[in-house]
Write a structure and sequence with these properties.
The protein contains 3 helices and 4 strands; from the N terminus they run αβββαβα. It has 111 residues and is an alpha+beta fold. Strands 3-1-2-4 form a 4-stranded mixed sheet. The longest helix has 39 residues. The protein starts with 7 loop residues before the first helix and ends in a 5-residue tail after the last helix.
């Protein structure tokens, strides 16, 4: 870029072209990121709501292990969303309440 034959104006025009190219690239990156964010938001909106109650089961057996409040951090990967009456029935049949989220308290069951 140190060509003594290039005028100052020619160097400035060259710099302008480089900056326009860089700006166009940055604008493409911004548009791509906006598209990704739009798709992420659309995916979140389309996601079904979390269940209010969960029943966790053992893998080898089909016996229920715990009843959880929906969204409990301690619910295992083998948890399934259930309706309120199913959670109540499971607790009445002796399935343990999760000791972290206390679904029995949330369901209004008193010992």
């Amino acid at each position: 870029m140190n060509d003594p034959g290039m005028s100052r104006l020619a160097m400035l025009r060259f710099l302008e072209r480089v900056q326009e190219r860089d700006l166009a690239r940055t604008r493409r990156w911004i548009a791509q990121e906006e598209q990704r964010e739009t798709e992420r938001q659309r995916g979140l909106a389309a996601r079904s709501p979390a269940p209010d109650w969960l029943i966790e089961r053992h893998r080898p057996q089909r016996d229920a292990v715990y009843v959880h409040v929906g969204g409990c951090w301690n619910a295992g990967s083998r948890s399934k969303g259930v309706e309120r009456d199913q959670a109540l029935r499971a607790l009445a049949e002796g399935v343990d309440a999760c000791p972290q989220c206390w679904p029995d308290t949330a369901l209004g069951i008193l010992d």
